[in-house]
Amino acid sequence: MKNPSNRRHFIKRTTLSSLGALLGAEIVYALPEGYLPLALSQEKDPATPFGKHEEMVVLNDQPWNVEAQAHLLDDVVTPADKMFIRNNGIIPENIAVDKWTLTIKGESSRQEKTYSLEELKAKFSQHSYHLVLECGGNGRSEFYPPADGNQWTVGAVSCAKWTGIRLRDVLQDVGIQDNAVYIGYYGADTHLSRDPNKNPISRGIPISKAMEDQTLLAFAMNDRDIPIAHGHPLRLIASGFPASVSGKWIHTLAVRDRVHDGEKMAPPSYAVPCEPVEPGTNVANENMCTIDKMPVKSLITYPKSGAILRENQKLNIRGHAWTGSQNISKMAYSIDFGATWQSCNLRPAVNPYAWQQFEAEIDFPQKGYYEVWAKATDNEGNSQPMLPPGWNPKGYLNNACHRIAIKVS
Amino acid sequence: MQHLPGNLRLLMGAGLLVLMLIGFGIYFQSFTEAPPADGEIRNADKPLAVEGVENEIKDGIHEPTGFIASEGLDLVIAHCTACHSAKLVTQNRADREGWKKMIRWMQATQNLWELGEQEEAILDYLSENYAPVKTGRRPPLTDIEWYELKE
Fold first, then answer.
1. Are B42 and A28 in contact (CB < 8 Å)?
2. pLDDT 10s digits, A235-283
3. What is the pTM of this model?
4. Is residue A386 within 8 angstroms of chain B, CB to CB?
5. Domains in chain A, please, with CATH?
6. Among all residues of chain A, which has the CA nearest to that of B106?
7. Is A373 left (phi over 0), alpha (psi -120 to 50) or beta?
8. Nearest-CA distance A379 → chain B (Å)
């Protein structure tokens, strides 16, 4: 697919996936020989869309939603091929980086100002952080009664190195009024219905979050251009919130004098009942509160679940722990379903909102079937429940302990 | 009709033909859109035309979409996959009320059209084939791929 010899071949290949939907007919017909638009060149093989690792799991291909498995997330810095994709709409097909602009406007902006990508990079100081992005619905598949939407298991989380400029610096350059309460984003993706007047998603963050050091307008991931599926050429990164606030393909930011009211901003999207409810309860939108913090959570990334050990063979486990709050202060594992817990070695975060690494060496007392459960605790004493936590209609915020199966034979 | 004059017979024939065409028109009203051609992008503002579904079924599954082959399959393909992947349906489970709620949400916010009389058949299909499966609050780990871990 690298060098399609003719248009016919190209068009034929697009039918193998739903990728045809990503491309306008006019692009298809105007396609010069040997040239592939970025979106397509990164999609390539339907078995490994966007160059993703072959063990990544495609939950949805229109729109693209792809998750990792726990053992794929073993790297301290998540590589692009193991990063989950969560899209609400269709990936933009025509990205002209040299013509890309960012416009800041809105009722609480002192002016409407437009920057080219080059201006943003040159004018403002650049910063790099390791930042966790986790889908608000990660773990949704475990709720009962079932919650509708993509049935994420554990793999809608990543921690890449993001490089960009601080949103705060740009907002200060534009000037924002005292009554500003929210920043809303607008991206170049297309609504699934192809209705040009509809945004697939337009969420945002409170001003206080926009002012944090680690809230970035990012243009690089892991020291390279951001891959198309992850928001090339410009995206918002606001770690600690559900990843849906970290808008992709950003061309406009609105400084709002109220909570932003874009698509999927209002409940029930990315919201949970303000008061705990019995599972299965019908909750009115006005009784739902928008999520503003991801919970304490961890993953065992080594070994892969299903390891068979010989008797007396020690097992070294490792993984990551993270929180939308301050930091993880304690990491424990159990091999007896929570009857007893042993502590793991835990490393500090390289920067706020980075995940922290843990490891432990385990001795098993006798032959048999075991599950290794992992539990993180933050500096305020919040830890992970062993059961899926409070049921909510849309299935958000499942931070139940991760576990792997082990056999000693 | 032998007793009628020839020109009247012709007129009646033409009238019948017009009526049949109108009938076909009404019948296919919701299926006017052909599936997208290769590489084509266009508004998803009406159901897809669905043909030859029965030839694409293997072991009870409609292969191109992964839908369970059952009464109402063609309607679900036509209405649900115009906008999004069938995977968004097949990975979900809900009772009739739950599926109806999703349809109402899509109609209110996502440009889904009115389903008219076909809604009942669609809800029948979804609630019968994609009903919730009781799992308990934390089921045992399943589908474990066992492998030997070297030291």
1. no
2. 999 999 999 999 999 999 999 999 999 999 999 999 999 999 999 999 9
3. 0.85
4. yes
5. 1-46 (no CATH), 97-290 (3.90.420.10), 297-408 (2.60.40.650)
6. A193
7. beta
8. 27
